[in-house]
Write the structure tokens for this entry.
Amino acid sequence: MKIRITIMAFLFAGIAGSFVASPADAQRYVIVNGQFLNSAQIQRLEQLGCVSIPDGNYWLRSDGWWGYAGDPTPQGQLGDYCRKPSLSERGLLYRPGEILGE
């Protein structure tokens, strides 16, 4: 729920135009829902998604699903990469006595 509210606030901030950058001013070329993002917006979106965002043209829904502009197929959900693997997924979960060789 918190991520959804943050995403909605992020989208509304871009629509409001207070953070919209022109392509000439941008060091990066990232467009989300038709809005050029400035470096602060890109950084915030990367923090929310726990991933580096390559330059490109994307769509982002308020529920966190994202994809490439012109393609309605969702590519993932914002925050998918934030979940850390469990101990067993990393191979770090041991049975009692397994480490000592009992």
Summary: The first helix runs from residue 2 to 16. Residues 94 and 100 are 10 Å apart (CA to CA). The chain has one domain: 2-82. The beta strands are 30-32, 35-36, 56-60, 65-68, 76-77.
